[in-house]
């Protein structure tokens, strides 16, 4: 029996920056991912506190970044969780799930790790 170890996503309450971008909601490298909660809160934009919206956004980022650790790149489908969030509106538009193409990629990556032949 083989096991896949999925690195937990680290959540931080500080703003994240990378060279060339003024901020990022999250970051993934190798098997590690980190998300910043700061800009996911409506209060950050002087909007009314909304715990549900904050949790929904956090969940989406916590699915998106590990997607990169599975080798997925940004997806052109704006409804797909792997779509790049340049603005918070992008995060709010997309769903929490993977599009068909990204689902297949994830399934095949997991299949490789578990030695399961790809689905035809
Ligand atoms: Zn991304
Ligand atoms: Zn996709």
From TrEMBL:
Signal peptide span: none
Protein name, as recorded: Archaemetzincin
Molecular function in Gene Ontology: metal ion binding; metallopeptidase activity
SUPFAM superfamilies, per database record: Metalloproteases ('zincins'), catalytic domain (SSF55486)
Cofactor: Zn(2+)
Enzyme Commission designation: 3.4.-.-
UniProt-listed InterPro entries: MetalloPept_cat_dom_sf, Pept_M54_archaemetzincn
Source superkingdom: Archaea
Top-level class of the enzyme under EC nomenclature: hydrolase
Pfam families for this protein: Peptidase_M54
Organism: Candidatus Methanoperedens nitratireducens
CDD domains given in the database record: Peptidase_M54 (cd11375)
